[in-house]
Amino acid sequence: MAALLMIPRQRKERIFRGMVSHLNNLTDNEMMIRYRFGRDSIAYICNIVGDKLRRSTAKDTALTVEQQVCIALRCYASGSFLQVIGDTMGYDKATVSRAVNDVTNALLDVKDNFIQWPKDINSKNRMKCGFHRQMNFPNVLGCIDCTHIKIQGPSEDEAAFVNRKGFHSVNMQAVCDYEGTYLICLYPLRLFICLPLLLSPLKFLVSK
Predict the structure, then answer these.
(1) Which of 17, 96, 162, 170 pairs as cysteine with 86 (C-beta 3.0–4.6 A)?
(2) CA 16, CA 180: separation in Å to the nearest integer?
(3) C-beta of residue 198 within 8 angstroms of C-beta of residue 146
């Protein structure tokens, strides 16, 4: 009787992904819809974060830099659950989680190469001349605005992340130059502390 109850556990069949880039089957418009970036832009991102994402293994099943970047970009662009991203792209949920985390940290490591407040007088004068040339508005260094970035409701302090429109978000403040390049990006965690966190660093930079 005991032998009849001991049903052998069936292991889930492992699926090994091929190394052929799935981007080859997408048009530029389809890539923009899915990733918010074109082919050349994705290749550029892969190039700047490649050293941080490249796996030190000879296994054929290890994710390539391009695969990790595409997983993260799909998550950023859609805001879907990790399980949904995995089911859509053919990866396990844990794999998606690791890829998003690794790519995010890699991008954060190089952010200062692209997001910079003008530090010298020549850079500041160039900003002012650019705004004056385009808008005939003198002595402007940047344009400032805020937006709500929708997030999944956190398990802790959930109510602190509900905005006035009724959904969970973090408040982002950004300053850009006359060409639309970001100079500052600030992300407070909770909405009710956003004002002092957003204004204090900016006031410090402008005062310098």
Answers:
(1) 96
(2) 42
(3) yes
For the entire predicted model, the pTM comes to 0.73
Nearest Cα neighbor of 146 from 92, 203, 200, 185 is 185
Spatial distance between the Cα atoms of 39 and 99, rounded to a whole number of angstroms: 19
* 155 membership: H or E segment, kind and range: none
Sheet holding 143-150, edge to edge: 143-150, 169-176, 182-186
| DSSP state letters, 163-202 | -TTSSBEEEEEEEE-TTS-EEEEE--SSGGGHHHHHHHHH
**R_g (Cα) of the chain, nearest Å:** 22
Contact 73, 102 (CB under 8 A): no
Residues 6+ apart with CB under 8 A from 197: 186, 188
- Select the highest-mean-pLDDT range: 56-65, 136-145, 186-195: 136-145
Per the CB < 8 A criterion, the answer to whether 185 and 107 are in contact is no
Q: At 13, is the pLDDT very low, low, confident or very high (cuts 50, 70, 90)?
A: low
Do the Cβ atoms of 109 and 78 come closer than 8 Å?
Answer: no
